[in-house]
Amino acid sequence: MRNCTVPAGKALLFPLIANECSYAENPNLKSPSQLIDCAKSADNNLKYLQLSIDGVAIPYMEKYRITSTQLFNFTFGKDNIAGAPPGPTSGAFDGWFAYVKPLSPGNHIIRFSGASVTATQTGQPNYAVDATYHITVG
Known about the structure:
The chain is mainly β. It has one domain (2-137). It contains one helix and nine strands.
């Protein structure tokens, strides 16, 4: 469970389930198209995706998949979660994102979950997310 305060009038954009792939993590990949395919590969086996706002389910979240068409630059810090060497790199992303119009002042709950399950012989990780945000808009 996470607690957040959001200024009134601000919309929210956040990933529900997403994957990135970079040259730092995958030095065997040599082109932007290979990085994009890498980012998409773990997400190609989406098993479920759910989003609710204040207990109301938002349908058809599967149609909100976004894949980068160009690489973006970023820097891995020391001891990062990806196990990549620290320093600058380029990468691609793929995933499902939610855009939420500004919520009314007060307290809200946003909950989302999803899972992508790949065959173990592919070497791609299975992963899942289940998050609850308690949002205070003020």
